[in-house]
Write a structure and sequence with these properties.
There is one protein chain. With 397 residues, the chain is of the alpha/beta class. It has two domains: 14-219 and 339-392, Rossmann fold; 247-251 and 256-327, formyl-coa transferase, domain 3 (2-Layer Sandwich). Helices cover 36% and strands 16% of the residues. It has 16 helices and 13 strands. The protein has helices at residues 23-33, 70-73, 89-100, 121-127, 152-158, 161-164, 179-202, 212-218, 221-230, 264-274, 288-293, 295-307, 311-320, 331-335, 338-343, 386-392, and strands spanning 14-18, 37-42, 57-59, 65-69, 80-83, 104-107, 132-137, 206-211, 247-251, 256-260, 325-327, 346-350, 358-362. It is elongated.
Length: 397
C-alpha cells in the first residue's frame, strides 16, 4: 500500500466502500483487517447512520460524546473516511474517479438506487471491465421483492430463522445481534475474494449480487434441509437440539450450563454423574432416537438434580467424565476470560484524534501463520481522511 501500513494478504487492493450500517461494513472491515485499503464514502451530513445509534458513544477527554458510537465501532476499523455528497454532480464525479483507481466497489443501496447517479454496476464496470462491483440489498437485484428495502430483522423474519428461534410456546424470536447482516457480510467477503482470484487470472471483473434474505436462507443449514427432505415444518425448541437429546441449557443453583450429550456412552456417564444410574437402561432413554421421542420425560428427570448443584461443580464433574459441558457466560465474563486474552479477541486501537485516545474493539478471529491480520486504524471520525485521500489519488472534481 502507499501509506506505510504493514503488509497483509490483501496489501495493494483498494476497496471503494459505498455501504453503510452493518452488512457491507462487516465485509469491508474484514478486507481491511487483511490489508486492503478501504475508502469509506460517507454523506457529509451525518455520515454512516450508525454514528448516531447510541448511546453508548466514545467520549473525548472533555467528556463530550464523539461521532463514534459503539455500534459504528463494531464494523469500521481499518478504514479511511472520505466525505462526499453523491447527490451532487461534483460528488458523483469524485466517486467515478475513485472507482477508476479501485479494485472493488461495494454498495448497499436499493436496486437501481445508484443508476440515477451513473454509479451503478453497469456504468462503472463498463468504464473499467476489471472492476469487481458487489451489491448488497434486502432481496437481491431480481425477483418480485427486489424493490423492497432490506433490514436485518426483516431478513430474519422472511428467511425463516425467527420461526425456529424462541421457546415452543413463545413468540418467534430474532437472534440477539444483527446476524443476517453479519453473515451477509461474510458471504460478500468470500464472493469478493473469489472474484479477485478470477480477475487476477483473467483480467475480468464482475458484478456480485447478494441479498440479506438469500444469505439468511443459506444458513438455515440442517433445519432447512430437514424441511426440504420431509416437507414438514420445523418447530421451535428453545435451547433444545432438533436431532440430539439431551443437548441444551440447564439451570444450576447459581447459573446456567450447556450440556451437549452426543452419543449413548456420554449419556450413561452423564446419568452416572447425576446419580441416575438406572436411566440409561430405561427403554425410553436407552438410545438417542428414543430420547428424542421421550424428550419431555427425559428433561423432567434431569432438571432437579442439576438445579441442586453449583455451576462450577457441574462443569468440573462433567469435564472429568468426558461429557461436553460449558457455561452460559455474560459478556463481562466473556471479555474477562483468559481464553479471550490468549486469543486476542479484545484489542485496543489508538485513535487518530488524540483527544479521543484509544478504543477497545472485538478482535478478528482469523489466525494466520504468515500474514496476520493488523489493526492499523481505529474507526475514523466523519470525513477525517477526505483531504489526504483526494490529494494522494489526485482526485479533481
Amino acid at each position: 500500500m502507499t501509506d506505510g501500513f504493514d503488509m497483509g494478504p490483501l496489501d495493494g487492493v483498494r476497496v471503494l466502500d459505498l455501504s453503510r450500517i452493518l452488512a457491507g461494513p462487516t465485509c469491508t472491515q474484514l478486507l481491511g483487517d487483511l490489508g486492503a485499503e478501504i475508502i469509506k464514502i460517507e454523506n457529509p451530513n451525518g455520515g454512516d447512520d450508525t454514528r448516531t445509534w447510541g448511546p453508548p458513544f466514545v467520549t473525548g477527554r472533555d467528556g463530550a460524546p464523539t461521532d463514534l458510537s459503539s455500534y459504528f465501532l463494531c464494523a469500521n476499523r481499518n478504514k479511511l473516511s472520505v466525505a462526499v455528497d453523491i447527490a451532487t454532480d461534483e460528488g458523483q464525479e469524485t466517486i467515478r474517479q475513485l472507482a477508476a483507481q479501485s479494485d472493488i466497489v461495494i454498495e448497499n443501496f436499493k436496486p437501481g438506487g445508484l443508476a440515477k447517479y451513473r454509479l451503478d454496476a453497469a456504468t462503472l464496470c463498463a468504464a473499467d471491465p476489471a472492476l469487481i462491483y458487489c451489491s448488497i440489498s434486502g432481496y437481491g437485484q431480481t425477483g418480485p421483492n427486489a424493490h423492497k428495502p432490506g433490514y436485518d430483522l426483516m431478513a430474519q423474519g422472511y428467511g425463516g430463522i425467527m420461526s425456529l428461534t424462541g421457546e415452543p410456546d413463545g413468540q418467534p424470536m430474532k437472534v440477539g445481534v444483527g446476524i443476517a447482516d453479519v453473515m451477509c457480510g461474510m458471504y460478500a467477503s468470500v464472493g469478493i475474494l473469489a472474484a479477485l482470484r478470477h480477475r487476477d487470472q483473467t483480467g475480468e471483473g464482475q458484478h456480485i449480487d447478494l441479498s440479506l434474505v438469500d444469505s439468511q436462507i443459506a444458513w438455515l443449514i440442517n433445519e432447512g434441509t430437514s424441511h426440504l427432505t420431509t416437507g414438514k415444518r420445523p418447530i421451535r425448541r428453545g435451547n433444545g437440539h432438533p436431532n440430539i437429546a439431551p443437548y441444551q441449557v440447564f439451570a444450576t443453583a447459581d447459573g446456567h450450563v450447556i450440556v451437549a450429550v452426543g452419543n449413548d456412552s456420554q449419556f450413561r456417564r452423564f446419568c452416572g454423574f447425576l446419580g441416575l444410574d438406572t436411566l440409561p437402561d430405561d427403554p425410553r432413554f436407552a438410545a438417542n432416537s428414543a430420547r428424542l421421542n421421550n424428550r419431555e420425560a427425559l428433561i423432567d428427570a434431569l432438571v432437579p438434580p442439576l438445579a441442586a448443584l453449583k455451576m462450577a461443580d457441574v462443569i468440573e464433574g462433567l469435564e472429568g467424565c468426558g461429557v461436553p459441558v460449558g457455561p452460559v457466560q455474560t459478556l463481562d465474563q466473556v471479555f474477562a476470560s483468559d481464553q479471550v486474552a490468549a486469543r486476542e479477541m479484545a484489542v485496543t486501537v489508538a485513535c487518530d484524534d488524540a483527544d479521543t485516545g484509544a478504543v477497545r474493539l472485538i478482535g478478528n478471529p482469523l489466525k494466520f501463520s504468515a500474514t496476520p491480520v493488523t489493526y492499523r486504524r481505529a474507526p475514523p471520525g466523519l470525513g477525517q481522511d477526505t483531504a489526504e485521500v483526494l490529494q494522494r489519488l489526485k482526485i479533481k472534481p
